[in-house]
Amino acid sequence: MISVSEAGRLGGIITSDAKKISSKANGALGGRPVNAVLNDDGTVKGCNTIYRPKGRAGEYAPLSLNLYRGCGHACAYCYVPLVTEQKRSEFNKGATVRSNILNMIERDAKKYHALGIKEQVMLSFTSDPYSPEHHIETREALKILAKYGMGFCTLTKGGTRALRDLDLFRKDRDAFATTMTSLDESFQKKWEPGAASPDDRIAALKEFHNAGIFTWVSLEPTLNAESSLAIVDATHEFVDLYKVGKVNHVKINHGIDWEDYTHKMIDKLNTLGKAHYIKQDLQMYLPEGYRNEMRPKQHH
Predict the structure, then answer these.
(1) Which of 1, 45, 209, 223 registers the highest number of CB atoms within 10 A of its CB?
(2) Torsions phi, psi of 122, nearest 5?
(3) Residue 186 domain-assigned?
(4) Does residue 28 sit within a domain?
(5) pLDDT tens per residue, range 175-227
């Protein structure tokens, strides 16, 4: 472990004066001094609410937090009930707010601030920040992250529900993202019965884009290759970045030619001049030496 004074370059800030960082973290913001320690693996000691995701999740974001348990979008392909050991029927009943979550977010944010870590925090992996049942807490969480100088990104299938928080997004720090599987609402409702329609998600992307906020689309899962390619055609004028993956955890779409899909997708994205990241599951199909930055910049 290293202390604040040994943290060096973190989140774009260079410092060697622990007292200077600590006083900055606590002076203007008030409160008691923060004891923040950076572990050797890049995690922050005692921070379990704002955390560094690993594995496939780590491809999406350097930091994340989860406000809710359960989700009313009821996506048939969702892997989260397996991870949280919930019955799918229970998980799909809807989101519930995690106990004391806003206080826990603020506790962790103070420590990241004391260490000068300002990376984007993604909301979220185990639920949706704009679920049908709860999203008031999402706004409060974004306020806390901004208060302590951290960037944020919301990844949602909630569509225009997110517009209530548009005023909190900063052009040079934050991002708005949505997952899309199809432009066909009847197909989408089969897989994501409680989520916003494709048109509603597109409307949200346009609003955030028009407000100058960085936007990106997750093309994961890919349920149908042609559907995902069509999404790029329909959205590229107001989407800054695409992240492309397969489908995991559910046994479907074995008929997709993943190599052909990968080649068609990167050809389309390069022709349109769109930033993109091809996730690990498809990287075996990339041309040798293909530039594929895992975490491209997600703000203007």
Answers:
(1) 223
(2) -95, 135
(3) yes
(4) no
(5) 999 999 999 999 999 999 999 999 999 999 999 999 999 999 999 999 999 99
Residue 9 sits at the vertex; the CA angle it makes with 215 and 176, to the nearest 5 degrees, is: 10
> Per the structure, how many domains does the chain have?
1
Q: Which domain CATH number covers 116?
A: 3.20.20.70
**Per-residue pLDDT tens digits for 14-64:** 333 333 344 344 444 556 667 889 988 888 999 999 999 988 778 888 999
Distance CA(203)–CA(240), nearest Å, equals 15
In a domain, 252, yes or no: yes
Task: Output DSSP code: residue 283.
Answer: G
CA dihedral over 14, 45, 61, 184, signed as positive or negative: negative
User: What does 185-210 look like in DSSP terms, one character per residue?
Assistant: HHHHHHH-TTSPPHHHHHHHHHHHHH
Residue range of the domain that includes 256: 48-285
Q: Is residue 264 part of a domain?
A: yes
